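[09:14] KT: can someone run the structure on this one? pasting the chain below
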Amino acid sequence: MKKVTKGIKYVLLLIVGLITGIFLVGIVSGAKDALSGSKADAIKKTLTANCQCDEINQFIYAQGIQYSKTDGLSTEKAEYELVNCKYENITKEVARINELLANQVAGYEDLDLLKLEFVGTENHQTFIIKNAQIQ
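[09:31] RB: done, structure tokens below
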């Protein structure tokens, strides 16, 4: 009888230990994410510092599994609107921005979908970047 109750105690201690361990890992992971800052904030700071635009607006930053007919499956996506930017060639500007983000934003290559919408008085163009590759 003592061996059975002793075995039950060990199993219960093991279960409590596992639950506590999982809980602690969640706390540490959440604290690490909170202290490291958001990837969305880093992208916006980089765009603001390096683009000559009247406004830079963040529309979406979403994490988690998402699916859309136009964009396909993604786990992390962001969308920014760049208003009245000064540039000579928009294609070269997007390539420059992509390179800056790759060099300055940690984990940028893991961003499944980034949409940059350039809005001007005469035109409106959207560029899609998937995993740091311009589409």
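[09:33] KT: thanks! Residues 1-36 form one domain.
[09:34] RB: yep, looked fine to me
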